[in-house]
Write a structure and sequence with these properties.
Layout (H helix, E strand, L loop, with lengths): L2 H20 L22 E9 L5 H18 L7 E9 L8 E7 L2 H9 L13 H10 L9 E9 L12 H10 L2 E8 L3 H13 L4 E4 L13 H13 L3 E2 L2 H16 L2 H14 L17 E2 L17 H4 L3 H36 L7 H13 L7
Parallel strand pairs: 1-2, 1-4, 4-5, 5-6
Antiparallel strand pairs: 2-3, 7-8
């Protein structure tokens, strides 16, 4: 659509939505709640919340997003200076569906984000409008947005249907305005060709200083295979095995489950994950991407110095029957293997990035490209350049 035509559409959409924006709210709007700030380390922070329509027609987009989330994160991490990255998720449907929203807070633990995204399944819907406003409200009000330091805050609202309007305090225009009042930009991505969705999403982006994009129904995402993926996948599996999970019994079980998830990751996604870790300094093992610490869980192979502080029942099963000297030798051996694997993977990740820069064709109308274009533009406000 021509730029002037889009501007006209946005103005018309703003006027058509104004009635909903000025309706009295059935429930009072909450003020931004205080949040625990990130530990200051001088690095800029990029915070992105994806608000995703998860009704039945969005299946293709969701599956593509699962494949591309690590690629998006890796590209975000390529900024200078290297930013800290926090990602949150909101799945939304409507009142007549299995749920209205599911919300996962902003986190640097991108392994957990990936696991949560994999749990999103398309279903329900059928009556076209969805509760867009509730999804947007959850992103604005339930996320622990950073409020200090160099930070760029972004929401990506992604869907193929316009809002279902209820007099419940969750109309989309109100929450788009609340977002920008709190320094959170709202970018919108319309999937498919519904004109009502285009009008509304254009208006919402305009209200919250964001960008609007329109993409195909399935998102147009294609996993790019490289000559490095097979070797990186092989080393990735070895890395998953080069771990010694310590903590309570439940925590150790969680660690082993995380290792299985890592080994089962598709090769391109695993390679993108390694590339992200090599750029940000995150651990490459199964507890990387920010480092899960549920129930005191940690990996002795990554933190061998913590061995002497553990009780016997907190040790990995394979160490409990050994003497203190044998335990130390076993941990040092696995830690050495792990360090060598990480060095190999970091080298391959750098070579793979170079190959992609020269050989990969970008689809400018794909979901991941639209997201990165908006991130790149907004990141400048936090002092991050690409």
């Amino acid at each position: 659509m021509h730029r002037l035509a889009r501007a006209v559409v946005a103005v018309v959409a703003l006027s058509s939505l104004s009635a909903f924006a000025t309706e009295p709210d059935a429930v009072p709007l909450k003020e931004a709640k205080p949040v625990e700030q990130l530990k200051a380390d001088g690095r800029p922070v990029l915070e992105v919340a994806f608000v995703l329509d998860t009704t039945g027609s969005m299946g293709g987009l969701l599956e593509g997003a699962k494949q591309k989330i690590w690629s998006i994160a890796s590209r975000m991490a390529s900024g200078k200076p290297t930013p800290r990255i926090r990602v949150g998720l909101v799945a939304y449907r409507d009142r007549t569906d299995e749920y209205v929203t599911k919300t996962f807070d902003l986190s640097e633990d991108l392994d957990a984000v990936y696991a949560n995204l994999r749990g999103f399944q398309a279903g329900g819907g059928g009556d076209t409008p969805e509760h867009v406003g509730k999804g947007l409200a959850d992103a604005v009000d339930k996320m622990s947005w950073t409020t200090q330091g160099r930070v760029a805050r972004m929401i990506f609202l992604v869907g193929d249907a316009p809002s279902q309007h209820y007099n419940d305090g969750f109309d989309a225009p109100t929450w788009a305005k609340k977002a920008i009042e709190r320094g959170i930009v709202v970018n919108t991505i319309r999937c498919g060709g519904d004109p009502n969705t285009e009008r509304e999403f254009l208006a919402l982006a305009h209200m919250a200083d964001g960008t609007y994009a329109s993409i195909g129904q399935t998102g147009g995402m294609v996993a790019v295979a490289t000559p490095y993926d097979a070797e990186m996948a092989k080393l990735n599996a070895k890395l998953a095995d080069a771990s010694m999970y310590a903590g309570g019994r439940a925590a150790r079980d969680e660690g082993r489950a995380a290792a299985l998830e890592l080994k089962a990751m598709p090769a391109p996604a695993a390679a993108d994950r390694i590339a992200f870790a090599s750029k940000t300094g995150a651990a490459m093992g199964a507890l990387g991407g920010g480092g899960r610490a549920g129930g005191g869980l940690f990996d002795l192979a990554a933190e061998p110095a913590r061995l002497d502080s553990l009780k016997k029942e907190e040790l990995p099963d394979e160490l409990q029957k050994l003497s203190p000297e044998e335990r130390r030798a076993a941990v040092e051996k696995v830690a050495k293997e792990r360090k060598a694997l990480e060095a190999q993977l970091a080298k391959l990740a750098k070579e793979r990035d170079g190959w992609l820069a020269k050989n990969a064709e970008t689809k400018k109308d794909s979901f991941d490209e639209k997201v990165f274009d908006s991130v790149k533009a907004r990141a400048k406000t936090a002092g991050v350049a690409y």
